[in-house]
Amino acid sequence: MVAVSAFVSFLSLGASAVSGFQCQSAPVIGADELVLLTSNVNTPFSYQLNRPDAAYLSLHFASVNIPVGGLLAISSPDGSQFHEYTNVTQTNFYAEFIDGDSAFITYTPPRSTSSSIDSLLANDAPNAFLIDKFAHGFPKADLDGQVEAICGKDDSQSAVCLKSSDAPKYQKAQAVALLRINGGSVCTGWLFGSEGHLITNNHCIGNANDASNTQFEFGAECTTCETVPGRTCKGVTVATSSELVYTNPANDFTLVKLKLANGASLASYGYLQARVSGPVLGEPIYIAQHPRGKPKRIATIVDSGAVGTIESISIPSCVADEVGYTLDTQGGSSGSPVLSAKDNAVVALHNCGGCQNGGVKISKVIQDLTAKNLVPKDALAGGSTSAPITTAATPGTTSVTPVTTSVTPVTSVKPVTTKAPRPTMTKAPRPTMTKAPVIPTPPAPVGGDCTGCKGCYSKLLGVCFPNGFTDAQCVSFTVIQATWCGN
Asked: Which region ranges are annotated with the description Disordered (predicted)?
């Protein structure tokens, strides 16, 4: 496959990740903007991406193919945030977030005298990466009006507040993750069983593409009980992608398998187990969650100071026949585990609210997964409770057979655990932005030119670009031999 040497085309077209809010919707904290940035494996590349007033930037890669000795780096201007990719092949994922409104992108080719590299002409070398869009965070994410609700005053606490006073609840909460979906929305999820599976709501991750483009951050909690605003108290992003195993809109749940970053481990987080019989009316409960994508909080009591309980065993909520409770939640708490304070087993999956809040009975989830032989190992209460041994280097063998075949296998990216020095970078000239010419819609190509693509397809790069390009914009990209494949 032939690639273009350092082709850059910038399109300032904003695209909201999610339209108007509905009963079941992950809260939106950012949006996508289209961009085309690429370079071949032999050509150095440097570019500074700016999006004024953005809370964060997250680059989306259509493909990454970094050879041995090559280095692709994404960093903040001051070098305090730094993510690198080397000897990696991966497709369709968002890079880890860079806080702020600016990010440097640099690519350094291998220092090789190998004829396999040097004999390639610049225009014949494969492309090292292709960035097709980026997500930018809204300056102030307006999440008011979401269904999940604080009932009266907020009685939830920062997770660390329970570390000494109620250690079992704090320990179980370690298996709860912050999910960043498609670069612009947030939810909560939790490790289910010992093989690296995670459960959240269907309205958070609803399909294979959502699963592939979700980042999973564990340990995002503060060290003091004080409430801290914004994306402070960061955790560890153990995976920037996952594989869809199963999803059920009727019961509003999704099961995924994490594609761990190289060297990442889940051992320190433990995992949760579900009670087969489900919730019991009147039993005390608690909810570990990431409301609005903030540091982890745990809700245990209601306004009166009484312990939160299962108040209703069957209410009409976002889906039929849910359990009801009045523990405090907010937008972004969707997908949180509702745990029994008696045995610390998951009894419901939080998905809706309003005082009462609503959760899917976990017994329904188990019944569905059992019928399809998809219950992960150690996922049911009463089995082994040891910490998972799943790591990227030595992944455990899964007994789950995924029901989707649309997920592209991904090679994990090695996370940076120490701050690396920021390479010397010169700001590339900002490309001239012009509107694409308005031209008649070309006929859809025949003879297999689209290879299954339903939008804009580059025959030169072999890439189907995301939704958002128009037919006129697509065919204007003559340098990459773009073809319009839409209707």
From this structure: 385-440
